[in-house]
Inverse folding.
């Protein structure tokens, strides 16, 4: 992927969800992405300025976007700069997600400890 000028994301089946893991990986490497729209695009509005979306099955639109980015070094470099800036402006979700995960694990541990204590007190009776 490091040598790619453009990454194309085409869905395997109709009504597919957006492949955000793949898209974020490409964006983290400052790659231009041309992707088909997805059923859940409204959940990822932060990607609209960073990814060139085309309608599903619109082959002509896909080809035109890819040709544009491949054929113009100047436009491609400008777009790479926009992507870099856009990614830098995105909120870092890792601290939020890790806090949620840590809180969930802590809660589950507390429940397990209470159940463990309860089971031993029942055995002793």
């Amino acid at each position: 992927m490091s040598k790619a000028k453009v990454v194309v994301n085409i869905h395997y089946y109709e009504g597919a969800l957006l492949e955000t893991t793949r898209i974020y990986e490409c964006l983290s490497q400052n790659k231009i992405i041309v992707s088909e729209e997805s059923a859940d695009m409204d959940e990822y509005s932060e990607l609209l300025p960073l990814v060139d979306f085309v309608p599903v099955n619109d082959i002509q639109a896909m080809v035109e976007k890819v040709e544009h980015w491949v054929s113009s070094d100047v436009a491609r470099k400008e777009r790479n700069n926009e992507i870099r800036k856009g990614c830098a402006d995105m909120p870092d979700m890792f601290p939020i997600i890790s806090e949620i995960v840590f809180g969930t694990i802590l809660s589950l541990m507390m429940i397990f400890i209470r159940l463990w204590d309860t089971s031993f007190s029942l055995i002793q009776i």
Notes: Residues 1-90 form one domain. The chain is about 55% helix and 10% strand. The chain has a mean pLDDT of 86. The first strand starts at residue 6 and ends at 9.
